[in-house]
């Protein structure tokens, strides 16, 4: 059974409709709508934590909550010590932290495949952020804390047409 099956079709449809804007997923209106959806979802940690989310010790797992031809909404479970590659996105990227702490490190590209770290922030439960792919928006997400962390991500892409939201992967170098 998919995680999607635990959210009613009516609820999934309402959320996906609320993310539709005349300008599509590359507009300020869309970011406002996504931010509102995320604020609502991160305010319900008990509901999200009760979902049968796939988990992987030491890694992270993406669980599709809802999606259509314009957007996809994922719950990501961050196992202790898990990390993404350093990356940017080909689409709008919005996320909110439901539980635990996710450390986000921002990078500056020095060429097409290498980047230097410029800032690091701990994102606590309740934190919400949205960005357009107008970048550069290069970052890495990690769970450096004890236990799992859970975040919700809304991406402006069709999950059936693209395997992920990642555009380019970078290698970290010291500045």
From TrEMBL:
Domain of life: Bacteria
GO biological process: L-cysteine catabolic process
Alphabetical UniProt keywords: Dioxygenase, Iron, Metal-binding, Oxidoreductase, Thioether bond
Residues at which Fe cation binds: 87, 89, 139
InterPro entries reported for this sequence: CDO_1, RmlC-like_jellyroll, RmlC_Cupin_sf
One function term, GO molecular function aspect: cysteine dioxygenase activity
Crosslink site: 3'-(S-cysteinyl)-tyrosine (Cys-Tyr): 93-155
Family affiliation: Belongs to the cysteine dioxygenase family.
Name the UniProt record assigns to this protein: Predicted metal-dependent enzyme of the double-stranded beta helix superfamily
Source species taxonomy: Bacteria, Pseudomonadati, Pseudomonadota, Alphaproteobacteria, Hyphomicrobiales
């Amino acid at each position: 059974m998919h995680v999607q099956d635990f959210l009613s079709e009516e609820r999934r449809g309402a959320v996906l409709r609320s993310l539709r804007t005349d300008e599509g997923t590359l507009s300020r209106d869309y970011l406002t709508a996504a931010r509102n959806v995320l604020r609502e979802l991160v305010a319900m940690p008990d509901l999200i934590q009760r979902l049968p989310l796939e988990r992987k010790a030491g890694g992270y797992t993406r669980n599709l909550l809802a999606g259509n031809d314009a957007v996809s909404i994922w719950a990501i479970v961050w196992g202790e010590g898990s990390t993404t590659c350093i990356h940017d996105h080909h689409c709008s990227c919005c996320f909110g932290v439901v539980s635990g702490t996710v450390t986000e490190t921002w990078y500056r590209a020095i060429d097409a495949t290498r980047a230097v770290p410029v800032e690091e922030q701990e994102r606590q439960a309740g934190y919400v952020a949205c960005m357009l792919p107008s970048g550069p928006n290069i970052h890495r997400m990690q769970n450096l804390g004890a236990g799992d962390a859970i975040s919700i991500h809304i991406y402006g892409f069709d999950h059936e047409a693209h395997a992920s939201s990642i555009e380019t992967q970078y290698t970290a170098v010291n500045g």
